[in-house]
Amino acid sequence: MGKYARAAGNEAKAAKARGSDLRVHFKNSREAGKALKGLTLNKAKVYMQAVIDHKRCVPFLRYNGGVGRTGQAKNEGNSIGQGRWPKKSAEFLLGLLNNAESNAEGKGLDTDALVVSHIQVNKAQKGRRRTYRAHGRINAFMSSPCHIELILEEKDSAIKAEAEAGQGRKLSKKELAKKLRSGTTSKSS
């Protein structure tokens, strides 16, 4: 197993998947991967299938030079409206999500509670080809493959939120000093 860029919060409640030297465009995969982060596993799979079917688009936020505008991108959170439907990237990401789901089932995790906590797309070594031009010239014809890794983690229950809600509001330094001078021992109101 290869090294991941980030360790899971709890290895026992996490499932991983990675693909190396994938023949799919780096820039498209990076944008599609960014759109998946934070989604539940089921929502991510439905989203990628919708991208393949051209029902929803992937908003292009960084590599957006020359990318056309579509109303679907505004619905996905891009105020400018630039977006595309990177079918091949979506197929590869869907395959990785299915792989991670299988790994989670092998570990005995609840697949309905899994969330995409980490996804990273790195550039791989470029494939070098050549194209023949006029007057006997030759130009490079490069491909831009990528490495993709993702981590799914089980979402924690709302127990932490209830525990924090019982503490009350956080006091400023001035309010804490005033309480301590008055002799009150409790830090919260």
Automatic annotation (TrEMBL):
PROSITE patterns registered for this protein in UniProt: RIBOSOMAL_L22 (PS00464)
UniProt cross-references to SUPFAM superfamilies, sorted A to Z: Ribosomal protein L22
GO cellular component: cytosolic large ribosomal subunit
GO biological process, one term: cytoplasmic translation
InterPro entries, sorted: Ribosomal_uL22, Ribosomal_uL22_CS, Ribosomal_uL22_euk/arc, Ribosomal_uL22_sf
UniProt xrefs under CDD domains: Ribosomal_L22
Keywords assigned: Ribonucleoprotein, Ribosomal protein
Signal peptide bounds: none
Keyword Zinc-finger: no
Region named Disordered: 163-189
Any GO molecular function: structural constituent of ribosome
UniProt cross-references to PANTHER family, sorted A to Z: 60S RIBOSOMAL PROTEIN L17
Family: Belongs to the universal ribosomal protein uL22 family.
Name of the featured protein: 60S ribosomal protein L17
Organism: Chlorella vulgaris
